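Input/output pair, single chain:
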Amino acid sequence: MSRLYLFALLFFVYQLGFAQRIETWPISDKTLKQFKTSGTLLLKKIEFKDKNGLNYVIAAMEEAAKDDYNSRTLWIEHYVKDTTKTLTLLKEVVDFEKDCPVDNQLALIDEAFEVTDLDKNGYAEIMFMYKTGCNGDVSPSGLKLIVLQNGKKAAIRGKTLIKGIKNTDEKQQDAAFLALPQVIRQHADNLWNKFKTEYE
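Output:
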């Protein structure tokens, strides 16, 4: 294989991967006033365009402490605004860890948040991961990967691995995930493998 051919092939693969990512930008403070975010810690506030029109994704955390117990609630909301400028909640994901007396593990993994169109159907995939659990020692946390696309949700659920400790790789894909196109499933599996190990 010539160097020129190899370079052309690598460039094509790079361009293909780049094209599958959807450009996002932060939601402005003015626009953000349309959403109920008061009293929460904003983790993500992005917008982008696809076949649904203008999309807004907001991730927020609410935390409360009482005595020696900590509670957290995580929200991820996907809104769309069509040509009539009607704002519609397309999908909401809510999870929580209540009354944790030790270390509350519920947390969004910032680096694992992506917006793509891997199957090239014009509708974005919003892919993100977060940890769950209430741990007082070095033990696996719960781990979830969610894929949102056009109002539908698919998920992988399992546990993290602890580096240096022999533990079982727990991972379960739900029926909705197994029904996704192979290109999305493969990307999600790669993302899971990238972030499944703690204390690296």
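Residues 23-198 form one domain. Residues 118 and 184 are 6 Å apart (CA to CA).
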